[in-house]
Each structure stands twice: as C-alpha cells, then as structure tokens.
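Chapter review: from sequence to fold.
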Amino acid sequence: MTSCIAPASKPIVLLDTSVVRLGHTHTTERVELGQRDWGGGAFQAFVLRRTKKTGMGEWNESQSRFLPGIAEMAKEGRGDFVTYWLIDGERLYNQRVRTRTVMDYDHFEGVRFRSIDHPFVISGVALPRIGLGTQQELQSYLAMQIEFNREPRFIQFLEIFGKKNSFDAHHLWFSEKNHIDYFVTADRKLLRKCKEVTSRKSKRMTFSTIIVSPAEFAEQFAIAPSDPSGDIDIAW
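The token string follows.
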C-alpha cells in the first residue's frame, strides 16, 4: 500500500521471506559441450548455464523486476536493511529446501542484513544447532518461540490476522516495536488485509511501520524496474 509519508533519507527496512525468496531467479547446471582440442590435446568442454526460473506467476514476476534495484540500494548502504530471529528461521527453512547450488543467482547474495534481535542465535547464524529437517518441525519450533508473547499490540495483530498467520502478526509487531520504517512483503494476502484494516470506517487500524510490496517500496525511492535476463552462460 503506497503511503503519503515522505521516505526517510536512510530508511530501516525489513524484508519478508516472501521477498528474499523471489530474489532466487536462476538455477545453475553444467552443460556438456563434448570434446574440444586444446594445445595439441583434447578436453571435455562444458559451460555453467544459469537458467531463469519459470512459473513464478504474473504477480511474482512483476514484483521481482524491482529486486535488483532494492538489492543495490542495500549494498550501497542507502538503507539500513535488517533481520531478526524469526525471519532468519523462515529463511533457514527456505534455503534448506530449495534445490540450489552455490553458483545459483540470487539478487540478495552478498547483502548484509543487520541483526536486530537474536535471543537464541550464535554468531548471527539462525538456528545453527537445532537439527530440524522438515518444514513442520521448524515451524513448530518457531511458533513455540512466539507462543508466550502476551504484549497487547501483538495480541491485537493476532486477533486481526488470525493464529494461522501468527508469523505475519509477529513480523508487524516486531517492526513497530523496533521502529522499522518499511516492512516489504510479496504476500498479497497480507497486503490486502493490511489495506482493508486501514481503510475501515469503524475499528480502523493504523500502523507505525509502512507495509508495502517491492513495487511500492521501489516507487517511494525512485528505483526503476529491470527485466531479469534469461539463460546465461557464465563460464567455460
């Protein structure tokens, strides 16, 4: 939802897992090219080919076009891009299950996220020793960490978004508590719900954190879209 508030010169930004996941745009595979002559001998030639992921959907595709500019903003220090333990926990699961290699292309590769609050994290690495292997186990573990949060504002968010969306409620509560300027999400359901509760005639709700899509965030900071390239041969 676009806000009429003037953007901060160096905003504090929390990226939802849905946004970071969109940054993984290409997978990498080795393509064999057959025997080639070289210096009087022969060798097996190959190329590492980055293949653009397909099936993202129109919405995700439109939002992903703004991620290169947002990542560049973070790398250049024009924003204070932050993270915290629950976002890290979600990213840990997504990193684990995605079929990716170290050569896959990710817009947010190399972006340093400032850690705000890691109550059970060692050296800034989320959940390093809990040994959880499935989504259900990890979600249960993370849900347990927020189960006893009884702060009134979090309870209010929980009532609005529902217990099934307790992670989203916690992200919004945490963002407000830590004076984060922008919470950027590609979750359309969450964006629609936030817009709905802020436009009610009765029981209207306001947020101190601006909740936006990547495209809306980019608009605030004059970040132009770019069309992620197709397949790329990156090395022989």
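Two observations follow directly from the output. Residues 1-6, 96-100, 119-132 have pLDDT under 50 and may be disordered. The two ends are 45 Å apart (CA to CA).
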